[in-house]
Amino acid sequence: MSDLKFACPNCGRHLAVDAACAGSQTSCPACGQLIIIPREPAPASAGPTSRPGMPAREPGGRRSWARITALAIGSLLLLAAVAVGSVLIWGKSAAKTVNAQCQAKLEAIRKAGEPASGAELNVWYEQPPAGENAADFFLAGFELVQISAQDANSADLPLIGKGKLPPPGQPLPAAAKKAIGDFLARNRPALEKFEQGARCAKSRYPLDFREGPSMKLKHVSQVKQAA
Ligand SMILES: [Zn+2]
Predict the structure, then answer these.
(1) pLDDT tens column, 188-210
(2) Does one domain contain both 107 and 196?
(3) Ligand 1 centre and the CA of 35: distance in Å?
């Protein structure tokens, strides 16, 4: 599990949460403001926790004034280290709080019987048995659709070609009727698949939800074309 680091957009506190919590809402442990955990780690803003520039190491002088300077720088370094350390410890406990809030929300979703990850969604969104999956028929139909260049350029074929539908109430011209009839006859096998699909009560396209928002929905444009 990788950590997602981001700064609270309200108070600037640097926070780190489990990457699985990206996109969910939580309250900032520092200022209490409701915030959305970003999906991408935001560039760290110069907030109150920005690390102070470390002074160069003391040169370990031989003369007494140099020793005093070294001691003074040493104490300052120690103080700075303690300050940075306490901020880091504080930040860690803040991250723990955010993580716990986020995990509790994910747990609540799971308790309600709903998926909280892509892998869980894959299981939850059940695959209908063979022969009962509308998506299988539609995918087979998409492969069978035949739209030739002649169809696309046809002056008689409306919608698919360049033919125009008559105004409402006017009959279809005979040439258009023939063009539509020919086109449908040629695409009978595809239409039969679409009809079979339409009779199925269940449908699931072969998608892997673990891919998340970058998942490709190849079938969407095909469904649009078939419609
Ligand atoms: Zn905050």
Answers:
(1) 999 999 999 999 999 998 888 88
(2) no
(3) 8
